[in-house]
Amino acid sequence: IGIHPHESNQMNKNIYDNILSLSSHNKVIGIGETGLDYFYNNSKKNLQIDSFLQHIKISQLTNLPLIIHMRDAEQDMLQIIEHEYKKTPFSGVIHCFTGSSMFAERLLKIGFFFSISGIITFKKNNELRETVSKIPIDQLMIETDSPYLAPEPLRGKINEPANITHTLEFMSKLFNLNKEDMGVKTSSNFFRLFTKAER
Q1: Which of 110, 84, 114 is nearest to 96 (CA)?
Q2: What is the DSSP string of 5-61?
Q3: In terms of C-beta density within 10 A (0-12 exposed, 13-18 middle, 19 or more buried), how is residue 43 classed?
Q4: How many H helices and E strands in the chain?
Q5: How far is 77 from 21, CA to CA, in rounded Å?
Q6: pLDDT tens, residue by residue, 86-126
Q7: Model confidence, pTM
Q8: In angstroms, how far is the first alpha carbon of the chain from the final one?
């Protein structure tokens, strides 16, 4: 549960209190999607930062992991996460990761996870594949981001959860594992982060 950075201008004390209150519900397993999106800038940067900081605070108070959206905002994102983590540690996953190796390296040091979407299968994404291949497998997850980002060979079509098998197969080859082992490992990673989720 949370406020997406595109809607950061809606964040206020009432919304914060509601998120904090609802986070105790047994079906709320994480805080977010929150973060920073400087590509679209649907909300002003200062409002995105303020909203992100409030979500971090809720994560720290509840011990629920953050689901983090990041686009064209690496430096601010790193500065905020590292600064706030030093105050009180918290956990999280970078959803639909497309960042740099430097970004990944710094967040790996504090135990963050990285969720990989169908973007990894796109033909021109060699740099992303190189970065992802260096992330320890026990800090990786796989996602669809439905209805967006359908993997090859379905690129351009409406995405759906069933299409995760294409991304799984691609990731299995990238890490030289069979699909079953990759599926078990990434699913296990999900449950290690989202400890309230029911298996």
Answers
A1: 114
A2: GGGGGG--HHHHHHHHHHTTSTT---EEEEEEETTT-SS-HHHHHHHHHHHHHHHHH
A3: buried
A4: 7, 5
A5: 26
A6: 999 999 999 999 999 999 999 999 999 999 999 999 999 99
A7: 0.96
A8: 20
**CB 188 within 8 Å of CB 197:** no
Cis bond leading into 147, ω under 30°?
yes
- The residues pairing with 94 across neighbouring beta strands, listed in sequence order, are 68, 114
Q: Three-state DSSP class for 100? A: coil
C-alpha angle 101-103-109 in degrees, rounded to nearest 5:
100
pLDDT in tens, 17-48: 999 999 999 999 999 999 999 999 899 999 99
With a CB cutoff of 8 Å and minimum separation 6, the contacts of 56 are 66, 80, 81, 84, 90
Question: How far, in Å, are 19, 32, 35, 96, 175 from residue 66 at the CA level?
Answer: 13, 6, 9, 13, 26
Residue among 77, 3, 71, 7 at smallest CA distance from 39: 71
Give dist(CA 88, CA 194) in Å, integer. Answer: 19
Cβ-contact 119, 125 below 8 angstroms: yes
**In this structure, what DSSP letter does residue 115 have?**
E
